[in-house]
Amino acid sequence: MDTLTLVVVLAVLGLFVVVGAGLALVGRRRPSSGPVLDVRAPEAAQAPYAPEAPPTVEALAPVAGRMARLRSRLRGSQALGTGLLGLLSRERLDDAAWEEVEEVLITADVGVGPTRELVERLRTRVAGAGRRDPDVVRALLREELLALVGPDVDRSLRTATVPDGADGEKGVRPAVVLVVGVNGTGKTTTVGKLARVLVADGRTVLLGAADTFRAAAADQLQTWGDRVGAPVVRGPEAGDSASVAFDAVRQGAQGGYDVVLVDTAGRLQNKVGLMEELGKVKRVIEKQGPVDEVLLVLDATTGQNGLVQARVFADVVSVTGIVLTKLDGTAKGGIVLAVQRELGVPVKLVGLGEGPDDLAPFDPEVFVDALLGD
Ligand code: GDP
């Protein structure tokens, strides 16, 4: 190899070394020179700020503490409290005075049976206490009213999904809640409010518009459902309510929903028709599995009439809980005691107004304090 060839070979080798080192240097620097993994599409990175679409589900008021609203909404509740306490602190508590106490309680819809029981116990305790200062009397009255309401009764709603033996031990089916009551009592509104409560609690809810007799009922339910993102299963107008209920429960199971709430029709003017229809709705649902909760909706402002309705419904379906609506529009909160006694079923929820979040789990202590006007 002559000198010229050697120089050329060395020059080429040198060039390789310089280019190679340069490339290696560039390669090593790349990570620190900027993000290596930038998955953003250039347009996305450049896109102007756009606010997110409004959420389907509206903001919901917390469920806890809602019952406290009763205090300001139970019309004239103080009248019951002050009336009773005034009578009980009289100089002479004779038979006539106790009869007046009874009257006050009966006028507040407490019902004859519970009133007699309450007065009997109070008479004994007031006599035993020996003193009748307002604090003592109030405490006794509060205790006795509370005992009648039943502070330890299980008022929970059976709305948790239920293990379903049908497709293996791991399967679950939605809890099925049937909502019954006379039209106008606030059934559809209650279904809507309850859906909100459940959705707020993280459950998925499907609504069944089985009140096919009232033309607007399905639309009304649809509006409630849309507001919380709960789909509604509907049927043709004046169609078969049992088949809508059946479809709702089936779709609820197929769609993996947690709860299916079924609204029903309640035309009380025809008891036989009502029995047949409601009975059929329940039987048809039960072809797929049990109904977990049957909520009877009663309008608190109808007083003793509500009790008559309650009896009719209890004859048709086994009611597991009572929803007392419109408690905000009455001074007669005593209906809570009467209806529980009548049906042997607890009041589980109360309606406290027309607002979407005016449905509260029933709290006996708050209720008694509201009655007494605390
Ligand atoms: P349904 O026929 O039983 O389904 O009764 P709706 O749900 O249509 O209610 C009848 C009326 O009662 C509507 O105007 C509701 O806004 C009203 N309502 C329902 N619940 C309450 C409540 O707790 N308080 C008050 N003040 N009104 C209520």
List the topology elements.
Blueprint: H1 3-29, H2 42-46, H3 70-73, H4 77-88, H5 95-107, H6 112-129, H7 134-149, E1 162-163, E2 172-173, E3 175-180, H8 187-200, E4 205-209, H9 217-228, E5 232-233, H10 241-254, E6 259-263, H11 271-286, E7 293-299, H12 304-316, E8 321-325, H13 335-343, E9 347-351, E10 359-361, H14 364-372
Parallel strand pairs: 3-6, 3-7, 4-5, 4-6, 7-8, 8-9
Antiparallel strand pairs: 1-2, 9-10
Helix pairs in contact: 4-5, 5-6, 6-7, 7-14, 8-9, 10-11, 11-12, 12-13
Give a structural overview.
- The protein is α/β, with parallel strands linked by helices.
- Helices cover 49% and strands 11% of the residues.
- The chain has helices spanning 3-29, 42-46, 70-73, 77-88, 95-107, 112-129, 134-149, 187-200, 217-228, 241-254, 271-286, 304-316, 335-343, 364-372; strands spanning 162-163, 172-173, 175-180, 205-209, 232-233, 259-263, 293-299, 321-325, 347-351, 359-361.
- Strands 5-4-6-3-7-8-9-10 form an eight-stranded mixed sheet, with helices on both faces.
- Helix 4 packs antiparallel against helix 5, helix 7 packs across helix 14 and helix 11 (271-286) packs across helix 12.
- The longest helix is centred in the N-terminal third of the chain and has 27 residues, at 3-29.
- The protein is globular, with a radius of gyration of 33 Å.
- The N and C termini lie far apart (115 Å).
- Residues 17-54 have low confidence and may be disordered.
- It binds guanosine-5'-diphosphate.
- Residues 181, 183-189, 325-326, 328-329, 351-354, 358 line the site of guanosine-5'-diphosphate.
- Guanosine-5'-diphosphate binds next to helix 8.
